[in-house]
Amino acid sequence: MQDTIKKLVIVGGGTAGWMTAALLKRVLAHAVDIELVESSDIGIIGVGEATIPPIELFNKVLGLDEAEFLRETKASIKLAIRFENWRAQGERYYHTFGAPGRSQAFCHFHHFWTRAQQLGDTSSLWDYDLNYLCAEAGKFAKLEVNDPVWEMQYAYHFDASLYGQYLRKYAEKLGVRRTEGMIEDVALDAQSGFVETLTLKDGRQISGDFFVDCSGSRGLLIGQALKTGYEDWGHWLLCDRAIAVPSERFEKTLPFTRSIAHPGGWQWRIPLQHRNGNGLVYSSKQYSDDEAADVLLGNLESEALSDPKVIPFRTGRTKKQWHKNVVAVGLSSGFLEPLESTSIHLIQSAIVRLITFFPHAGVRDELVDEYNRQSRLEFEYIRDFIILHYKLTERDDSEFWRYTKSMDVPERITEKIELFRSTGALTKENFDIFLESSWLQVMLGQGIMPGDYHPLADTLSEKQLRDKLTNTRQTKMQPMDQIPAHDEFLEMFTRSR
Ligand SMILES: Cc1cc2nc3c(=O)[nH]c(=O)nc-3n(C[C@H](O)[C@H](O)[C@H](O)COP(=O)(O)OP(=O)(O)OC[C@H]3O[C@@H](n4cnc5c(N)ncnc54)[C@H](O)[C@@H]3O)c2cc1C
After folding, report:
1. Among 52, 49, 56, 62, which residue's Cα sits nearest to residue 21?
2. Is the pLDDT of residue 261 over 80?
3. Domain ranges of the chain
4. Does the C-beta of 387 come closer than 6 Å to ligand 1?
5. How far is ligand 1, taken at its centre, from the CA of residue 44, in Å?
């Protein structure tokens, strides 16, 4: 059995490496000595710009000043993702971080709305969502509210390379040691199979009790040295390449990500303060790299700022995210296409889990098993939510969409769809980071209208039901006049502090 963990080594200085260094040092402080090794010859992946709301908590735990963070990372606010051409060409819907209506015990707002629809109401469910209203109007404010009806959940778009550098300064200040160098050899203990020593190209050696593999998709420790194996999900998620290019900023910075479906994949547009991030995620069976570049560059709407960069990837996860004395964090642990901006969140969640199950007194099977169980479930639920978008398409204009529409999907997705379709009911699983409101918006947005609603929605008379909807809509609209344009907010907020 391994002894106390005194020295922890992080391999890699991308977003995963520096997020890990910052949070572990902040929380574990003097309990462990932390060294991070990275190679500027290899560099970082350098994409990954959209996040989901829990990132705000990550920054808070680190004690980062939000205005400084926005300035340093050229960030903008993200209220939603707008999906265009996903259900059918010309159609669009939002997946916002908000929730429509007002929450109510036992019976979600959408049940009342469904009943109203059956009675002839023509409003959209999103009309009752402040995130949607602000996204459409290009507005944002940090509202100080005492009624949750006006709470706006938000995340950020940021320059991931700048975020990494910002956290590097933070972590080094707390005492994390950084070593520059290319790791050429990984030595394992002959008996335990634990990683013992890393040898750099110039011969220097780095030893540790515990290692966090943040080496990116090459998985230097978890995949290459420990050979944990990889579970491939390419039969459900056909995209296996991305091509990315920054472009000039627009006059207005939109407070949402755009995801635009094309015949062989989909394109992201992420507005930052100083530029747009763009990319096309695609299937190599549908587009060659040259065709993908044409699709991307042909749909930019502003001047490209560099040549496009192709990034191949393999969708899936490493079979054991913790094995022996190595935990994989970031791309080394697996990859899911950035359709719902979940990779940086998976980094955050892996670090929090590592802290929760930290092997202070040495690696124990019970800790490893629980860590791996939770990590697997979290990955699988995100995978399922992404598959949902492809499965529910009505498109048949390419082999790509014809396949995704008719493919067999994991049973729990079908169960969720059928439950919602027939009753309007939604379920929430442990370790699924997407709440009912997320499943609701994507299912509705992609054309599933519930055939029934909860009986509690029948307790109102028809007039009461109409009044409820009208009042909710008016209440949601109430703060709109005081909420400034998104750019105005960024300017005021980042300047005033
Ligand atoms: C196309 C695309 C779009 C994405 N979009 C999003 C998004 O919108 N939102 C989101 O949350 N995530 C997104 N991601 C994921 C996100 O980019 C990554 O999760 C994040 O950048 C973390 O990467 P990483 O740190 O694991 O790996 P990397 O950035 O690849 O870093 C690896 C590190 O390991 C070091 N290293 C490797 N080998 C060695 C060696 N032999 N010796 C020394 N050092 C070594 C490298 O020097 C580097 O420092 C996207 C990913 C892709 C591919």
Report:
1. 62
2. yes
3. 7-75+158-232+315-382, 101-153+384-482, 241-312
4. no
5. 6
Tell me whether domains 7-75+158-232+315-382 and 241-312 share a fold. no
- Residue 451: per-residue pLDDT: 98
Q: 241-312: what fold? A: Alpha-Beta Plaits (3.30.70)
CB-based contact 10:37 (threshold 8 Å): yes
Specify whether the CB–CB gap between 292 and 282 falls below 8 A: yes
Pocket test for ligand 1, best of 331, 351, 386, 433 (most atoms within 8 A of CB): 331
Q: Is the pLDDT of residue 464 over 60?
A: yes
Please work out whether the CB of residue 344 comes within 6 Å of at least one atom of ligand 1: yes
| CATH pick for 7-75+158-232+315-382 out of 3.40.640.10, 3.20.20.70, 3.50.50.60, 3.50.30.10 | 3.50.50.60
* Contact residues for 335 (Cβ-Cβ < 8 A; gap 6+): 217, 313, 314, 315, 316, 317, 343
Select from 213, 486, 243 the least CA-distant residue to 347: 213
CA 433 to ligand 1 centroid distance, Å: 21
Q: Report the percentage of the chain scoring pLDDT > 90.
A: 93
Measured at the CA of 457, the angle between CA 452 and CA 463, to 5 degrees, comes to 115
Q: Is 296 helix (H, G, I), strand (E, B) or coil?
A: helix
